[in-house]
């Protein structure tokens, strides 16, 4: 589960593009969120085109997390001939795709993904008051990781699992400058919550500004960016 990122920015940091992750496992393609900028970077990805199955796990429905999901679903169906799975605990994602004109026969909706070699356990997180949002604990033969989506805090069971080593890595929404009415995690929160020796297992994502240099200096892990035109 070597997660790469199509972008690493927050919604209002379009320069760094949307924080949407993906990984390839065996011959399957797993996407975590599909924001406004995702489809433009993803559509011609060799692993996406070659995958035996594509799963898009959606944490919540804000535009920078689900804004180009409709394009991805219809492209996969009509161009690649693949019916992708859309994972989200709530069927609100079906309503979103309905409104965007995507027929339900073009994708498979799955509210949970367990019982396979890789499982995604949804964990409810605090983000905004008008929408239920989730993170995922992703488990597989290589262990467990936690992916926050947008979230003010890391849920307590995840903190415990991370500190006792059961969860190997955390990918957490972390702003450098939290607003007055914070809806996101922050670097200060992570430093307060996790001891320095664990920082190398914490990947800060959804960055409000490009503060990767600071993250490096403080010993946090740096998420890997995918460049479509790269080697
Ligand atoms: Zn959000």
Secondary-structure blueprint of this entry?
Blueprint: E1 4-7, E2 20-25, E3 28-32, H1 38-42, H2 46-50, E4 53-57, H3 63-66, H4 69-78, E5 84-87, H5 92-99, E6 107-110, E7 119-128, E8 131-140, E9 143-147, H6 156-163, E10 167-173, H7 187-193, E11 202-205, H8 212-217, E12 224-225
Parallel strand pairs: 1-12, 3-4, 4-5, 5-6, 9-10, 10-11
Antiparallel strand pairs: 1-2, 2-3, 7-8, 8-9
This protein binds zinc ion (ZN).
Zinc ion binds at residues 60, 62, 65, 127, 150.
Features:
12 strands, seven-stranded mixed β-sheet, 8 helices, alpha/beta, binds zinc ion, Metallo-beta-lactamase, Chain A, five-stranded mixed β-sheet, 231 residues
Mean pLDDT over all positions: 95
CATH top level class name: Alpha Beta
Total beta strands: 12
Which structural class do the helices and strands define?
A: alpha/beta
Q: What is the distance, rounded to the nearest whole angstrom, between the alpha carbons of the first and last residues?
A: 20 Å
CATH topology: Metallo-beta-lactamase, Chain A
Outline the low-pLDDT stretches: none
């Amino acid at each position: 589960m070597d997660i790469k990122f199509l972008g690493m920015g927050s919604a209002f940091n379009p320069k760094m593009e949307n924080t949407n992750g993906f990984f390839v496992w065996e011959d399957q393609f797993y996407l975590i969120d599909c924001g406004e900028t995702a489809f433009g970077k993803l559509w011609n990805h060799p692993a996406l085109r070659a995958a035996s199955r594509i799963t898009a796990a959606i944490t919540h429905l804000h535009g920078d997390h689900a804004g180009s999901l409709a394009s991805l679903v219809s492209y996969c169906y009509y161009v690649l001939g693949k019916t992708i799975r859309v994972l989200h605990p709530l069927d609100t994602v079906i309503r979103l795709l309905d409104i965007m004109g995507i027929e339900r026969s073009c994708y498979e909706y799955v509210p949970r993904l367990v019982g396979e070699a890789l499982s995604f356990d949804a964990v409810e997180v605090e983000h905004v008051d008008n929408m239920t949002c989730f993170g995922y604990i992703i488990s597989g033969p290589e262990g467990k990781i936690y992916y926050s989506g947008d979230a003010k805090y890391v849920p307590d069971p995840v903190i415990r699992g991370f500190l006792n080593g059961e969860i190997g890595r955390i990918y957490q929404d972390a702003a450098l400058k939290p607003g007055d009415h914070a809806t996101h995690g922050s670097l200060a929160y992570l430093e307060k919550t996790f001891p320095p020796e664990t920082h190398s297992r914490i990947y800060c994502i959804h960055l409000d500004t490009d503060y990767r240099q600071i993250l490096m200096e403080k010993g946090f892990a740096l998420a890997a960016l995918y460049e479509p035109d790269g080697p």
